[in-house]
Amino acid sequence: MGLLALGTPLDWPEAKKKADYVRQWGIEQLLAIWKRAKGKERDALRWGDEIEYLVVAFDEDRQKVKLSLRQADILRDLAEDSVLKEQGGYVPDLQAVQHHGDSIPVFHPEFGRFMLEATPGKPWGIGFKDLLDVEPNMKWRRVIAKDHMNSNEYPITLTTFPRLGTRDDFIEPYFQPSGERLRSQFLPDEIANPHIRFPTLAANIRSRRGRKVEINVPVFKDDKTPLPFKDPTVNYDLHKWPEDDDVRNGAAKDDHIYMDAMAFGMGSCCLQITFQAKNIIEGRKLYDQLSPLGPIMLALTAATPIYKGFLADTDVRWNQIGRAVDDRTREELGEAPLKHDRWRIPKSRYASNSTYISQDPRLRKEYMDPDLVVDQDLKQRLMNGGMDDLLATHFAHLFIRDPIVIFAEDLKELDLNKTDHFENLQSTNWQHMRFKPPPHDKDTGWRVEFRPMEIQITDFENAAFSILIVLITRAILSFDLNFYIPIPLTTANMETAHARNAVLEQKFHFRNDPLPPRPMKVNGASGTSTPAHQTSRPPTPTGPVEDEHSLMTIDEIINGRSGKGFPGLIPLVESYLNSVNVDVETRCELARYLDLISKRASGQLWTTAKWIRHFVRENEDYKGDSVVSEHVNYDLLKAVEEITENEGKTGVGEEMLRSGWATRPQGSACG
Amino acid sequence: MTNLILSTSNLMNGGPSIIGRPTSEKSNVELINALRSNFLLSKQAFAPSLNGSSDGSSPDTSSDVPYSRWTARENGSLFVPSVDFSQSGLAEERSQYDITVKLFFLPHTSASERCKHTKEAIDLVLRELHMPSIDLLIVSFPGVSFDADDEEEEEEEEEELNGSQHGEGDDMKAMAETWKAIEWLHEKRIASQIGVSEFGSERLQKFLPQTKVRPSVDQINVRDCCVVPKALILYAKQEKIELLTHNDCTNILPSGTVRELLGTGEKGAGVLAGPEEESDGLKGEVEPQWVVKYTAVVRDRGVIENKGYFAMAEVRD
């Protein structure tokens, strides 16, 4: 989420009036980008990862850990330090890690005032030695971040702070909840980044929706969890804002943990990977082919078993974010007859994606989402401008949403050399894949962002998952792999991925055979002695779509089925690696990463979610009642800090990581 | 005598043959499957089609196709299947690619034959890819197999001593002699870099002094790269030889396999005559001479665009 220039944001009733304006201008800007960049060719593979951190502050005396709201201070210190660095005076103890010759990492603010985001200073390439730099670079980023924090603060990579929104002083400094912007009974307005864009986003989502956002996560029913579980932290007697009525109208459900603000979702940390494609064609192909992998990678990276001080019965963050930014009205949700709004909308702005966009003969119309909502007028405008049906449909689908944050200053005139209005809609459609047109600089090409993965505790794991996705894209392009399944099945898989321990206990719809059909040689000149034959693809398959996919475990999808079944993503990646020149050291490092992922999929190693849940339940202070107390939370985050530093080698967290370091070579290429 | 030129065409179009089961073991499965599938496809192109159907669901009539229909003679060689070099080639210009070629010499060939084989093999690859040169040429000698666990010095020397007796390990002199042909390709700028495969540090130490152009690459098996002996790593670093990984087996095309691929058996292509007298196949002993594998990777995108094999076998009356 980049910062926009400061300006005067419109409150929702005003913004709503200008929504059509912004959409139309956004579409004109999109057409301008598309016309300029559709012929862009031969861009190199460049890719980047984004690591998001929670900043926590330990209070050793009280055995307590809080979220630190010092994002702005930390970023300011970082910014001042990079000035120092240019003058040759960068922090000396960083020099040791800096010899990689990398550009200084870039730090960004995020929605939560307790969050930081860090990206590599320059994008990665596909040179295999680049892949070896990813993990050290991630570690370097964390060292730099830590170095600009107070001594009791630490940048951890958990998806959520386990006690965000509890009744005690879980933030440092402390602010009262129930502010004018969020109107949350759990979180203060100060929890969000103070930049005007963020509180406006939260306030206008609430305003558009007509009530607070409503997040109910099923509670994990442990031996002593009271049943029915009625979230004890909910205050039914608050009368400060009209929205305080929400809970009296049944917003908080039995047997669920109830949350009521955008920051409960957008305060989550993710691991996102963006790839630059060779051209628009390759970008569209990668967007489609990575899409069915989204729920698989979500379940495999599961890391979110706690909300607001309670163990949840789910393992991932996804739907909580979806609900935290769900600005749909009752009419759009289908809870009231359509009178004022234009259509019912089946998904939140933050949801699994609903389009395929590749002009690929393998894309059958049966795969498309039958419930797709499209703004037909905007689609027509795009097609009149020359865009093809598939891509026009995609963007006209994203543009069914209202722009949430509009700055008065941006409405003066339409500037086709800018992308602000387009980005306003594009960047507030948080789908699990994002297709990104080139900005107006000369260097950047068409990009695809893979967004579903949960952040992992260690940089080793984060590097492993990032690199896996990069290698999968190379295998997709080299082997012309086909992962198409009907979009509604990916939507269903996304729900399945939420189940506790989905990685081992659930099955997912997946395509049986990703390999291209055998080519056919066409006898072009029969009768001559040296016939010219050429290779051509068989026609688009026409068998029943149901026969193309089946339910598989994550283990089968990642490691392969025995016999003639799905070959497995890791064997596909291995085949790719066997066909390119990889040096011994790199191959050995890559083997560590693939081994981690393979064992997570097979269950030999635990997901982060499983480990956290187990840690809590084994803690001496845990009472078997689903409550993650301040003390348990302190112990947990201390353990997380230790794992971040030692990657399981001290025994803490080894259930997640054991093989990662056990196979590390001794006195060899990889030492 | 007839030289058979076996080819796979581009495996990257070929789907199933390239993806084996978990592939940490050294293997020639890819080559064998790719050859078999290319022979079959080529025969099918000439099979009488039933109802014009071409979706593969019709009964296979390809076994009735005589080999002369789908193979081609050129300068005394028989191309199995026939290759239309005008249909191949890479999509972009030379500078966009990293082209690696690995040449497998096979047992029972002399150094002077191997020099000739080198030229033949590289010529075919360049014709296939429509390129004037390659980036890296790696040679693999039969019987030279680096096994990390075995790189104990005594064993190595024992193998060297016994090598010539039981005909397994190639002796150093023959390798150095063959290397001249590789150096020649380097001097002619047809191969920018040249390298060897499966050399341990002992063998490298003996080999390097006998070369004019030193190998810049040593390719070793990846089965468990993490136990690469320190001696080899240090020596390679010192001599500026890059250690790359592979999972090919050295004896990549045994003559029995070629007979099976080309014979009249159930899985054979019917190019070689079977035991039954009336068969129209080639008669005589088949002896594979070399195999060459080529891979073209788009340089800054890491995408494999073309990968395939040629192999040459002699049929002696």
From TrEMBL, chain A:
Pathway(s) of this molecule: Sulfur metabolism; glutathione biosynthesis; glutathione from L-cysteine and L-glutamate: step 1/2
Q: Which domain of life is it from?
A: Eukaryota
Q: Signal peptide location in the record?
A: none
Compositionally biased tracts (Polar residues): 525-537
What are the entry keywords?
ATP-binding, Glutathione biosynthesis, Ligase, Nucleotide-binding
Query: Is the keyword Thylakoid assigned to this protein?
Result: no
What's the Enzyme Commission number for this chain? 6.3.2.2
Instruction: Note the InterPro entries from the entry.
Output: GCS, Gln_synth/guanido_kin_cat_dom
Reactions that this protein is recorded to catalyse = L-cysteine + L-glutamate + ATP = gamma-L-glutamyl-L-cysteine + ADP + phosphate + H(+)
Where are the stretches annotated Disordered?
513-547
Give the family per the record. Belongs to the glutamate--cysteine ligase type 3 family.
Q: Which PANTHER family match?
A: GLUTAMATE CYSTEINE LIGASE, GLUTAMATE--CYSTEINE LIGASE CATALYTIC SUBUNIT
Its recorded name reads: Glutamate--cysteine ligase
Automatic annotation (TrEMBL), chain B:
TM regions (residue ranges): none
Q: Which positions fall inside the NADP-dependent oxidoreductase domain? A: 91-244
InterPro entries, per the entry: Gclm, NAD(P)_OxRdtase_dom_sf, NADP_OxRdtase_dom
Q: Does the keyword Oxidoreductase apply?
A: yes
Q: Which Pfam families match?
A: Aldo_ket_red
What keyword terms does UniProt attach to this protein?
Glutathione biosynthesis, Oxidoreductase
The residue stretches assigned to a coiled coil in this entry are none
Q: Which Gene3D superfamilies match?
A: NADP-dependent oxidoreductase domain
Pathway participation: Sulfur metabolism; glutathione biosynthesis; glutathione from L-cysteine and L-glutamate: step 1/2
Out of the domains of life, which is the source?
Answer: Eukaryota
Family the UniProt entry places it in:
Belongs to the aldo/keto reductase family. Glutamate--cysteine ligase light chain subfamily.
Q: How does it assemble?
A: Heterodimer of a catalytic heavy chain and a regulatory light chain.
> Any idea what this protein is called?
GCS light chain
